[in-house]
Structure formats: structure tokens, C-alpha cells
Specification:
ABC transporter permease, 17 helices, alpha+beta, 2 domains, transmembrane, cell membrane, 9 strands
Length: 416
């Protein structure tokens, strides 16, 4: 193999009179490099999108949620909550009461999902309040048992930063929550309107939460929604994300009849399925760049065989057998693909690292749910891309290498 490799490398260093072959070879290397780099970057982006969406979804929401199958909610929840905390693999639990409301300030308003929480427990299952402005969690602490809000005191609320911007509210402003749980009046049922004080905002980078989510005290939510000592959900964190369905079934059994659970996998199954499909389609489409580069390799080697017909005939007349000639051109294609692949891997990983480190590509959070384009290059992707690139390139060398091995020395040298 040393002889074949030496000749293959020698042929790649084209002389001046073979400048066209050299240019086509350079274009082939550049094409392979561009295709490999594009594949690495595209896969890094799709991996980053999946990773960021999964991390943010898992970080900002509970892994498992328990709710009633029928009825208006979970009553007598305190002993149930303590019992469920002891279920194996459950690391944290928090009560919550959800309701859709309208948040208004002056003439500006926006729809929101408001959750009544116990903040010390909520931060153990969700990171949203951890990302709130200083003092937000303290403001949502429940009042001492037996005390009620003083007349004129506004109850605190923490909103997503985009929602607060939508209604034009800043910290300390008075806003109105309009609940569909209306009040009966002599004129019929009208929506309940309760003033709150904006105690803080949070920014998760996830538009779904930043634009339509808010937190108030659990007791305030129960009064606002006319649901005394009632929960709509109990949220759980588990020690292994991939075991969330299994832990959810254990929680259902521990809770007894009339309860059901869902988990982060079920809630986001279609999203992650779409991301996987996008990754496969992206790989297939961008692989066409490598295929085009492989066609350039075929052209370059075909031209090389035509240019080196006399040299091949001389080598064969000296005793070089056809299989050695074939290996010479196979090694030429291999060298072109290896050089191009290595260059593409270097460019792709450098570009992916720079994009992930500096976050210089910004996105519209309203459209993509995240505000910067994420990059997550993986070593396994580089291995797969390199194997595909070199494999496709070697396929392109089969025809010219076979053609070179079939040259007849006598015919090639007849007119020399």
C-alpha cells in the first residue's frame, strides 16, 4: 500500500500543465468541506433546539402533574400531598390552582394563566420564580395563619416579562385581574375584578411562559376563583426525567381512584417528534451537497485517468498489476474526501462553538419560543457525517478506478 499511496499523493500534486485537474480537485475538496461543515452546523442547530426546548420545558414546568379525573378539583389536599411526597423517585411536590383570567391596566389588557402557589414549594418544581426579579418570592409568601389582608392593601402578583410589557405595567403598578368566576348582582352575573400590585416579573426566554403566565398566593387564588381550600393540580419533580411516566403511574396508585397524571413527555410528544423529523430531513437534504462534491471527485479522477493514461500504461508494463492501479485511484478519492471531511469538521465545529458561545443569531421568541439560536454539536454527529462523506466519496471513485485498471498498455503506448 505504500507504493499505491505514494503514487496517489504524487498524482494529486498537479503540474502546471495539469492546472485544470488541480482546480477541479481543489473544488472537490472545497465541496466536501462545505457539505460536511453545513451538516455539522445544521445538526448542531437541531440538537440545540431540541436540547434548549427540552431543558426549558423541563426546568420551567413540573415533570409529573396529578389532577382529578372528575369533579371540581382536589380537596383535602394536605394529607394527600404529604403522602405523595414519599413515593419513590419523587424529589419535590407543590400544590397549585390554575385559572385563565384577563390582566388589565388602563386600556391595555392580555390573557393569562394565573397560578396560585406556595412559593417555597413552587421553586422546588419550577424555575420560573427563581428567574423573577429580587423580592418576588418574598412578596408571595403566605400571610401568617389567622391574618387577612388589610383594607386597601393590594395583593401581590408576579407576571411574565412579556405579559407585563403587553399591559404596560412596571413593578409597583396597580393592575386588575378579571376572573370568569363572576359575582351575582341585581343585574345578573358579572365578571369578578380584583386589583393586584405587580410585585415582580420573570423572564425565562420561553415565550409561552413569559407572555401568558403569572403567580399569586394560593390563598388569594382560592378567594379570587371562589374555590376555598381547593387545588387544581399537584406538581412533582422526579430524580430521573426518563422515568417520569413510570413515576406518574406510581403516584396514581398512591393517590387512589379518581386521579390521573400526565408528564412532560406526554405534554410535548408532538413537539419532539417534529424536531426529530426535522433533523432527519435536514440531514438528507444537506447530504446532497456532499453528493455534488462526490460527483466533482468522479469528474476529477476521470480527468486524471485520461491525463495519466500513458503513465498508467508505463507502470503496468513495469509489472504493476491492475488491482494496484485501481487502488491508486481509490486512494486518490480517499485522500480528497479525507482532506475535505477534516476541513469541514474543523469549520463546522468552530462555527457551532462560536454560535453557541456568543449567541450572535437572535430569533423572534413569539415564533420560535426561544430568543437565540442554540448550537449543540455532538461528537457522534461528526463520526456519522464523516462516515457518510467518506463513504459517498469512495463510491464516486469506483468508476474511474475501474476504468484505470482496464487500460491496456499496448494500446495506450502504440502511438507514443
Amino acid at each position: 500500500m505504500r507504493f499505491e499511496l505514494f503514487v496517489a499523493a504524487r498524482y494529486l500534486r498537479a503540474k502546471r500543465r495539469q492546472a485544470v485537474v488541480g482546480v477541479v480537485t481543489s473544488i472537490s475538496i472545497a465541496g466536501v468541506a462545505a457539505g460536511v461543515a453545513a451538516l455539522i452546523i445544521a445538526l448542531a442547530i437541531t440538537n440545540g433546539m431540541r436540547r434548549d426546548l427540552q431543558d426549558r420545558l423541563v426546568d420551567t414546568s413540573a415533570h409529573v402533574q396529578l389532577m382529578r379525573v372528575e369533579g371540581d378539583g382536589i380537596r383535602d389536599w394536605r394529607p394527600l400531598l404529604e403522602r405523595l411526597r414519599k413515593v419513590p423517585h419523587v424529589t419535590a411536590a407543590s400544590p397549585g390552582l390554575y385559572e385563565q383570567v384577563l390582566v388589565a391596566r388602563g386600556a391595555r389588557d392580555g390573557g393569562a394563566l394565573i397560578e396560585g402557589v406556595l412559593p417555597d414549594q413552587e421553586i422546588t418544581v419550577s424555575s420560573l420564580l427563581k428567574q423573577a426579579t429580587p423580592g418576588s418570592v418574598a412578596a408571595l409568601q403566605p400571610l401568617p395563619e389567622g391574618t387577612t389582608p388589610k383594607p386597601g392593601d393590594l395583593q401581590p402578583i408576579v407576571l411574565g416579562s412579556d405579559l407585563a410589557e403587553t399591559v404596560g405595567a412596571t413593578i409597583g403598578d396597580r393592575i386588575i385581574l378579571i376572573s370568569p368566576q363572576g359575582e351575582m348582582t341585581p343585574y345578573g352575573q358579572i365578571p369578578k375584578m380584583v386589583p393586584f400590585r405587580l410585585a415582580g416579573t420573570f423572564h425565562s426566554g420561553f415565550y409561552q411562559y413569559d407572555a401568558s403566565w403569572g403567580f399569586i398566593r394560593l390563598a388569594d387564588a382560592q378567594r379570587l376563583f371562589d374555590e376555598p381550600d381547593l387545588l387544581s393540580v399537584i406538581s412533582f419533580k422526579v430524580d430521573n426525567l426518563n422515568r417520569a411516566p413510570e413515576v406518574g403511574r406510581a403516584i396514581e396508585q398512591a393517590a387512589g381512584k379518581g386521579f390521573m397524571t400526565n408528564n412532560w413527555m406526554e405534554q410535548n410528544r408532538e413537539l419532539f417528534r417534529a424536531l426529530r423529523l426535522e433533523q432527519v430531513v435536514t440531514f438528507i437534504i444537506i447530504t446532497l451537497i456532499v453528493v455534488v462534491a462526490a460527483l466533482n471527485i468522479l469528474i476529477a479522477l476521470t480527468m486524471m485517468v485520461m491525463e495519466k493514461t500513458r503513465d498508467i500504461a508505463v507502470l503496468m508494463s513495469f509489472g504493476v498489476d491492475p488491482m494496484q492501479v485501481r487502488r491508486i485511484f481509490l486512494l486518490q478519492g480517499f485522500l480528497i474526501s479525507v482532506v475535505g471531511t477534516l476541513a469541514g469538521l474543523v469549520m463546522g465545529y468552530i462555527a457551532s462553538w462560536a454560535g453557541g458561545h456568543y449567541h450572535f443569531i437572535h430569533l423572534s421568541a413569539e415564533v420560535y419560543s426561544i430568543d437565540t439560536l442554540p448550537f449543540a454539536p455532538r461528537v457522534i454527529d461528526g463520526v456519522i457525517v464523516a462516515a457518510v462523506s467518506i463513504g459517498v466519496s469512495l463510491l464516486a471513485t469506483l468508476y474511474p478506478s475501474v476504468a484505470a485498471s482496464r487500460i491496456l498498455p499496448a494500446e495506450a503506448l502504440r502511438y507514443e
